[in-house]
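Appendix B. One record, verbatim.
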Amino acid sequence: MASAVAVTLLAVPAMAEKLPLSEISRYLNSLTTAQSDFTQVNPDGSVSTGELMIHRPGRVRFEYAKPDRSVVMAGGGQVAVFDAKSNQPPEQYPLARTPLSIILAENVNLGRARMVVGHQEIDNTTHVVAQDPDHPDYGTIDMVFTANPTELRQWIITDGAGAKTTVILGELRKGVRLPSSLFSITLEQQSRGR
């Protein structure tokens, strides 16, 4: 009987434990610069690809693959959306109004009261759903991590209206040199003649 129990226990795959919030905060705070290819699933189901550049704190750049010349970037506390199909100046709004600001904060502290609204292990990944505790109406970010070593694999931003945008990362190359000019909204406007 005991051997049957032992065989049954050995046949059950080991459950991955979810990463602690302190470990995820440590990991995000250790990211200074990073670069990766990405695939984005938009709220309407369309798919975009491109290159992502992160320069913490507060800066990110999404360059969409050709033929699309669109760029979404954050710098100087603002997000700017440069739509390649538009002749208008970029749409701009404060970075603090987007859930992405949680990843880009100078000091990520997922242990802060009411910031994390979901934390679970799903299929050997840790999902952390976070929001601005002072402004839950800005939406949430569902970050997906793998362990050993801890690595950010994707995020899903749900905006205040419930629309979801998923960003799936390729290999995240950390510690890369990224010039500040990549995150300058003014320089991007000048280069596009807007």
